[in-house]
Design brief:
heterodimer, A: alpha+beta, Alpha-Beta Plaits, four-stranded antiparallel β-sheet, 4 strands, 34% helix, B: alpha+beta, Aldehyde Oxidoreductase, domain 4, Aldehyde Oxidoreductase, domain 3, seven-stranded mixed β-sheet, 17 helices, 28 strands, globular
């Protein structure tokens, strides 16, 4: 059964060593919202507050592991699943 | 305006369907019959491994094959590289990890289908083969490798109702399993993508929901939704298996890349890898009752194998939890339903949608409980039957008619077939004189939600235009609703005739040039699109009345002489709400109920089964087309019989072993017994015409009724479907 799009979807790619990408994945994982979205790209989809919290943790973990850049795209559809 | 009388071919008439004879004679044009000038053929390279990592892909050898026009990989996906109905977790084309055998890796377009297939096999993939995770119980273990970044548990639904610790004087426990059933639609996945001058694409496609396909296509093709136009092709069955994308993005990518129309058409073997299946399930139940046969508590643990990607799994899991206790008054319940990722084939929507698996288990439990209580199994069900006003384990009250006891009584009242017709289980291959043949009779009852649940604002759109053509009124009905074989075109015609009082009705091809109709699934389309057509017709009639200006004698022809009248309307069902963390909420729109009695003959020495007859009573709310209702009920029972006795995708270590109709058995006319039908029309006051949907209930409780009859004949426990001959003879 299809469902409406999530309230917020964040696609992001970490620039930096593999360890930084791995750290971001590990940090985002427990949110339950993380999926692979392309080569080196992760997606977080769900309620806005949860996505933002998981994104923040992923970015912080990536920076701690040597990330030097971040490419992020956010989608907040007008009709969404909360 | 003069009073309009609906013609005899309106609502309630068994109008003959327009596609019936063409389908029987072979003249019907399916999506696989599509053709365009300068058309290329697409083919897909798929992973032979259930789990592997792609080190590199070499497309050079394929590109050098004469006649090949394009070879595409994930690098050529213009937009979002993943798709999915609930969670976009499935790669359009794999870039690194493959998670199931058959996952799409690369595409070829060539001037001949065999050239395309041969070239696809020349694509060089350097695989690092990995150990697949195929046991769903292992997938629950947090220490095993994660198939997706957020782990392997896709959803856990916990339902807590009353006192979950309540106990009864009599307790029965059971463990059950359901195999992986395929939708086995006869028309394999197929479609034709045609590049358009505006940079977009037109796709002619066999699908269940045009608009959700369009939206996913637009995202992955990096186009605006208006640049992706879909037209429904001839659909050869669906049963949930066409809700997810299959070749849609692939064909459009190839068409946009080559600038030529591209047709893709799966063969039967590829079809088994190209769509999702019914979730295999493991279920553990504990039923508590008083000595006089009143249910006290039900505890259930349900594990669904979602396979590699999410598809509709989270909703199937919710449904399994919602309907885990069956159509009974259960004062106390605790249900835990899980769906997990594995490296098995992805699973998703299929007729019954989570209620099939649980119905098999809860009905087996009711038989066990009846035996423990030394009570008639039907009487036990009747004593606990749900009714209007009952509270479900999810805390919601049943608002619609819930004639569970009446359905059972009607089935019991039907005469049973006599024996002695000389037909033995196994047909002509049974060369015995029937020495080992025993008869068994079994009963089951089930229910399921109609329409989309958990807060989804589900709706359908219809545009109705009434005009004069050749001096006579003509109604044109335009929706995006997918006719997948259920008879929806006829239903739309009948409603328009009923509401407008005209005989000539044309149902236009379904496409995305009108608003969404939602999916032809969840037994919802007659209710939802029927409701939209009814509302649009009412608006047309209101406009005509205004045009008449109160003049009582104005005829329809007179009024339409001033020009056509057109109206577009949406039908939304009543609001529903998500389940909370204790599985509580008014999550479902309405419910449909059915009861089945199976009579079987079993050769207990050879393990052969003959289903002698199925008797059923079902409440459909309103039979718009009684003949179509009978067809839906008989077809649904055939699929339930298939699950009971023969249909299972054999997956060993993540590899499918029977991807053909030679080895994946579906019931034929020789397997289908006569069906004795009793259709109730207890209208739902919240639905147009009282409609409640027909398609799924016949599949849900027919399976457990057949297995119950097998148990009665053999005395074997039979805790798994499909039941194999080995299970019957006790090997």
């Amino acid at each position: 059964m299809p469902v409406p799009p999530a309230e917020l979807t964040a696609h992001f790619a970490i620039e930096g060593p593999d360890e930084a990408r791995a750290a971001a994945t590990d940090a985002a994982g427990p949110s339950g919202l993380a999926r692979e979205a392309g080569p080196g790209e992760l997606m977080l989809a769900g309620p806005r507050s949860e996505v933002l919290a998981a994104l923040g943790e992923a970015i912080a973990a990536a920076l701690d592991a040597g990330a030097h850049g971040l490419d992020v795209k956010l989608e907040a559809p007008t009709e969404s699943r909360r | 305006m003069s009073t309009i009388a609906p013609p005899a071919s309106g609502v309630g008439a068994s109008v003959r369907r327009p596609d019936g004879i063409p389908k029987v004679t072979g003249a019907f044009a399916y999506a696989s019959d599509l053709w365009a000038d300068r058309m290329l053929w697409g083919s897909t390279l798929r992973s032979p491994h259930p789990r592997a990592r792609i080190r590199s892909i070499d497309v050079g050898p394929a590109l050098r094959v004469p006649g090949v026009h394009a070879v595409l990989t994930h690098e050529d996906v213009p937009g979002r590289k993943t798709y999915g109905l609930e969670i976009a977790d499935q790669p359009v084309l794999a870039w690194e990890d493959v998670r199931y055998q058959g996952e799409a890796v690369a595409l070829v377009a060539a001037d001949h289908p065999e050239t395309a297939r041969a070239a696809a096999q020349r694509i060089g993939v350097d695989w690092e083969v990995l150990e697949p995770l195929t046991d769903p119980e292992r997938a629950l273990d947090p220490s095993v490798p994660k198939l997706h970044p957020s782990g392997n548990v896709l959803r856990h639904v916990h339902v807590e109702h009353g006192d979950p610790g309540a106990s009864g004087e009599v307790v029965v426990r059971g463990e059950y399993a359901v195999g992986m059933q395929d939708q086995a639609f006869l028309g394999p996945e197929s479609g034709l993508a045609v590049p358009a001058e505006d940079g977009g694409v037109d796709l002619y496609i066999a699908t269940q929901w045009l608009h959700v396909d369009r939206d996913q296509l637009a995202a992955s093709l990096d186009l605006e939704p208006e640049q992706v136009r879909l037209v429904l092709g001839g659909v050869g069955g669906a049963f949930g298996g066409r809700e997810d994308l299959s070749m849609q993005v692939h064909a459009c990518m190839l068409a946009l890349h080559t600038g030529r129309p591209v047709k893709m058409m799966y063969g039967r073997e590829e079809s088994f890898f190209g769509h999702i299946h019914r979730h295999p399930a493991r279920l553990r139940y504990e039923h508590h009752a008083t000595r006089d046969g009143k249910l006290v508590a039900v505890r259930a643990w349900i594990l669904l194998d979602g396979g590699a990607y999410a598809s509709s799994s989270t909703a199937v899991c919710s449904n399994a939890a919602s309907f885990a206790c069956g159509p009974y008054e259960v004062p106390n319940a605790e249900v835990d339903a899980y769906v997990v990722y594995t490296d098995n084939p992805p699973c998703g929507a299929m007729r019954g949608f989570g209620a099939v698996q649980t119905c098999f288990a809860h009905e087996a439990q009711m038989d066990r409980l009846a035996a423990a209580l030394e009570l008639d199994p039907v009487e036990l069900r009747r004593r606990n039957a749900l009714s209007t006003g009952s509270t479900l384990p999810t805390g919601a009250a049943v608002r619609c008619p819930a004639p569970v006891a009446e359905l059972l009584e009607r089935v019991v009242a039907m005469p049973e077939p006599e024996g002695g017709d000389g037909l033995w289980p196994g047909g002509v291959s049974n060369v015995t004189r029937g020495e080992g043949v025993r008869r068994g009779v079994g009963y089951a009852v089930g229910f399921k939600n109609i329409g989309y649940s958990e807060g989804f604002d589900d709706y359908s759109t219809a545009r109705v235009r009434l005009s004069l053509a050749g001096g006579e009124p003509l109604a044109e009905v335009h929706t995006a609703a997918a006719e997948v074989g259920q008879g929806l075109v006829t239903v739309q015609e009948q409603i328009a005739r009923q509401e407008l009082g005209v005989e000539r009705v044309a149902v236009l091809p379904a496409d995305t040039q009108v608003g969404t109709a939602g999916s032809s699934s969840a037994s919802r389309q007659t209710m939802m699109t029927g409701g939209a057509v009814q509302a649009a017709c009412e608006a047309v009639m209101e406009a005509l009345r205004e045009r008449a200006g109160g003049e009582p004698g104005a005829s329809l022809v007179d009024l339409l002489a001033a020009g056509p009248v057109e109206a577009t309307r949406e039908y939304h069902h009543r609001q529903t709400f998500p389940l909370d963390d204790k599985g509580q909420g008014d999550a479902h729109v309405t419910f449909a109920f059915a009861a089945h009695r199976a009579v079987v003959d079993v050769d207990v020495e050879l393990g052969l089964v003959r289903v002698v007859e199925i008797a059923t009573a079902q409440d459909v709310g309103k039979a718009i087309n009684p003949q179509a209702v009978e067809g839906q009920i008989e077809g649904g029972i055939a699929q339930g019989l298939g699950l009971a006795l023969m249909e299972e995708i054999q997956v060993v270590d993540g590899e499918v072993r029977n991807a053909s109709f030679t080895d994946y058995l579906i019931p034929t006319v020789l397997d289908m017994p006569p069906v004795r039908l009793d259709v109730l029309e207890l209208g739902d006051p919240d639905a147009p015409y009282g409609l409640r949907g027909v398609g799924e209930p016949p599949t849900i409780s027919s399976t457990p009724a057949i297995v119950s009859a097998l148990r009665a004949a053999t005395g074997a426990a039979l805790t798994r479907v499909p039941v194999r001959p080995d299970d019957i003879v006790g090997l």
